[in-house]
# Entry
Amino acid sequence: MSSILVTGELWNEIAPLLPMEVPRPKGGRPRVPDRKCLAGILFVLKSGIPWNDLPAEFGCGSGWTCWRRLERWTALGIWGELHHRLLNALGRLGEIDWSRAVVDSASIRAVFGGSTPGQTQPTEPNEAVNAIS
# Structure
C-alpha cells in the first residue's frame, strides 16, 4: 500500500526532509519505516477514519504509531513543508479535487477586551430631541 500512496518519485522529493533514524542502544522493536508511516498518515487523512481504525494489514504499524510520527514531524516543523510538497506534487498531476476543498476560519474573543477606542468626536453640533424643550 505504501508504494500506491507514496510513489517513488514523491518519496524521493520528501525523504530528504525527514530526520535520520537514530539507532537505539538497547535494541527493542524495529522502527516502522517513515515511508510506511507516511502512507498510513495519508490513508487516515484521505479516508477520514479514526487513527485507531487504521488496519494493521496495511503494514503501516498501528494508527497510534502513524499519529505519533505525524506529531513528531509537526513538532520539528517538518510537516508543513512536507504537506506543501505533497500538495504541489498532486497539483502538478491534476489530482486535487477542489470541489471537496474547505476554507475554515476561527474568531477568538480578546480575553481582556483589547484597547477600547476613544469616543468618536461629532462632526457637527446636534442637539438631542427631548420632551422638555
Notes: The chain has a mean pLDDT of 83. Residues 78-93 form the longest helix (16 residues).
